[in-house]
């Protein structure tokens, strides 16, 4: 037996169809992180485990994960979920892999930047062409403001895209060789 809810800030339980942070509780939910009291304290509120997942419940009680809370960016006051942008980019026939992160933006606070690996022998892809492709798939606040094409994207030891590496590059860009 387990309870699952989607909540917004400050922990208002959301009705079906609304997106929020997923929280769980029950006898099969961990009591905490082994020998990590600070992380345990941050992950629990009033008996609920804060999963760090953003999702929503359907009318029939099925939950769908939208993204990770730590990956969400806020652009012009809107919550923007990089995974939704990545899913739309993956529909492009020339895209092999894509990662989207939030980058500082003077006007919007944050904006989406797309890192893309194209399929072998794919033609060049410009930001303008990508935005045109995404025009009917994303809202204006979700549209990437920057694009970087790479020969490959970084991965973790378990094969997941290493977005933290991309974020670190933005925070501390490599020196420009002259």
Descriptive report:
The protein is of the alpha+beta class. It folds into two domains: 3-70, Luciferase, domain 3, CATH 2.30.38.10; 72-171, 2-Layer Sandwich (GMP Synthetase, Chain A, domain 3), CATH 3.30.300.30. Helices cover 19% and strands 36% of the residues. The protein has four helices and eleven strands; from the N terminus they run βββαβββββαββαβα. It has helices spanning 37-43, 82-90, 127-134, 163-171; strands at 3-8, 12-13, 20-25, 44-45, 48-57, 63-68, 73-75, 78-80, 95-105, 109-118, 146-150. The strands form three sheets. Strands 1, 2, 3, 4, 5 and 6 form a six-stranded antiparallel sheet that branches. Strands 9-10-11 form a three-stranded mixed sheet, sandwiched between helices. The longest helix is centred in the middle third of the chain and has 9 residues, at 82-90. The protein starts with a strand and ends in a 7-residue tail after the last helix. The mean pLDDT is 92.
The proportion of residues in beta strands is: 35-45%
- CATH-level-4 superfamily name of the largest domain: ANL, C-terminal domain
Main beta sheet: strand number and arrangement? 6 strands, antiparallel
Name the assembly state: single chain
How many domains comprise the coordinates? Answer: 2
CA(first)-CA(last) distance: 62 Å
Number of separate helices: 4
The counted number of beta strands is: 11
């Amino acid at each position: 037996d387990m309870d699952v809810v989607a909540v917004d800030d400050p922990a208002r339980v959301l009705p079906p169809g609304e997106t929020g942070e997923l929280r769980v509780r029950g006898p099969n939910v961990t009591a905490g992180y082994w020998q990590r009291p600070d992380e345990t304290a941050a992950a629990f509120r009033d008996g609920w485990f804060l999963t760090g997942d953003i999702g929503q419940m359907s009318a029939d009680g099925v939950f769908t994960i939208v993204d990770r809370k730590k990956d969400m960016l806020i652009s012009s006051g809107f919550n923007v979920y990089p995974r939704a942008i990545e899913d739309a980019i993956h529909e492009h026939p020339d895209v092999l892999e894509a990662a989207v992160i939030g980058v500082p933006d003077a006007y919007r606070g944050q904006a989406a930047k797309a890192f893309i690996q194209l399929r072998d022998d794919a033609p060049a892809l410009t930001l303008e062409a990508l935005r045109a492709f995404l025009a009917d798939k994303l809202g204006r606040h979700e549209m990437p403001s920057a694009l970087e094409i790479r020969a490959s994207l970084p991965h973790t030891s378990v094969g997941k895209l290493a977005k933290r590496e991309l974020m670190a590059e933005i925070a501390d860009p490599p020196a420009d060789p002259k």
